[in-house]
Amino acid sequence: MSKESVKRYHVPKKQFTIMILPHGGRGGTQLTISYLSLSLVCIIWFGITASAAYFISERVRVDETQKANTELKNKVTSFSKKMHDALELITATAELNTHLRGMLSLGNKSKIIEYSAAGGPSKLEDLQLSKILLETSPMESEELLEMNEKEMLAESWQAKLDFREISQYLNEKRILARSTPAIWPTMGRVTSPFGLRSSPFTGGSQFHSGIDIANLQDTPLRATADGRVVFAGWAGNLGKTVVVSHRLGYTTYYGHCDNVFVKQHDKVERGQIIANIGCTGRATGYHVHYEIKRYGKALNPTYFVNRSF
Fold first, then answer.
1. Is 184 a domain residue?
2. Is residue 309, in this structure, part of any structural domain at all?
3. Which one, 72, 94, 161, 225, has the greatest CB density within 10 A?
4. What rounded mean pLDDT belongs to the chain?
5. What's the confidence (pLDDT) of residue 86?
6. CA distance 122 to 156
């Protein structure tokens, strides 16, 4: 026999006999195993294999669970930071919102300025949320994170809407304020007030529709509000005159000018130099005739200078 041979013999007594013979055919080894013993060996082997498979699968499951928990903790940490940042933003927005509404005395005057306080989670609620997330399953935690994130986004959007409404309202107020005459057209001495006066030419009583401000020749004249030039030229007794139209029906007049630096249709801003003081037209000296009208009715200019809006 060129190799070791292994022979198995069936024994009627339900046994297996295994013989191992060397190459020379002498001194072989015989092993007899019963069916019962073989069955026990198989059962033990299967049990060990099944146990090993179970423990391996459990280990994999534990590793996956730990990995999921680590990811969830990272998400909780990240979300907590987002909540903290969003809370600071919303709190600052709410405080500024309240401050602006109080400062402007908005109250309940219109729908756009109704009070709408922006809420937000407290630090305690933030900690409670983190604890709940850690104590719940990953799926439930994901739902909680998504729910709270949606709530925070809703709060943030509401805050943005409040800001937009207030910003729009303030912009409208700013435009209206900038369009209302509110500064002196020039520095100088008021030589003739608004209302009834004695005419410097006839001595008789006459209504003066503006005020006269005297100063040196070529003293700059400034627009008293934002608007558009509707006239720049000679206007009879007023001489060289600039007329500026503003919002809300206001119109301002600057008469007896010397040099005029604007032309019809020009846009002007409050404080912009539009002309110099002169003595053109019917005048007794260098001054500007400054007049304010609203929807054609003359108003006392001294009521508007340095006015607060």
1. no
2. no
3. 225
4. 77
5. 66
6. 15
